[in-house]
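My current task is to audit a protein record that another person submitted. Thanks in advance; the entry in question is below:
***
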Amino acid sequence: MSSDKKTRLFRIRKTLSKMLNARGYLVSQKELDRDKDSFVEDFGDDPRRENLTLMVPKREDPSENIFVFFPDEEKVGVKTIKEYAKRMKDENVFRAVIVVQNSLTPFAKQSLLECQAQKFYIEQFQETELLVNITEHVLVPEHILLSDDEKKTLLDRYKVKDTQLPRIQMHDPVARYYGMRRGQGVRII
């Protein structure tokens, strides 16, 4: 395997670890501090994508887990999505991140929506989106997710309705990084 691909997978895994930690999942300190040498030590010179799969529990509720899948295919199809959904169902996990090399087929995108209808929420990221941790960029302000109570306090304090607050797009890179959902509040510093 080329050193380039190994470095690429290492950088993606590191960004994912920091992303999950920022979302409130219990990522080990070893995983957060991992350097390229320890990555090679654990996964070898030719890391197989399926071995990079992660399952991490939530900090506040250890019964709530999230999967991170690395499919082998360049263009991920329905079969792979259904396999991941079955594995999520078997292990009682309702959230997942899928890291695709290139893209999903149109039918696979439709399959993701069907999974959502069954309460299995699978987010899709391309490898190129995870090569760099965007929250560490100098031009990206700090984003802090608000709890429901904090949002209610904010609305009461300024005597505004939910609809009067500024919006952030669902497809905004930082919103996707933090896994924000419709109706959540965020403080941007």
Summary: Residues 25 and 61 are 9 Å apart (CA to CA). The mean pLDDT is 93. The first helix runs from residue 3 to 22.
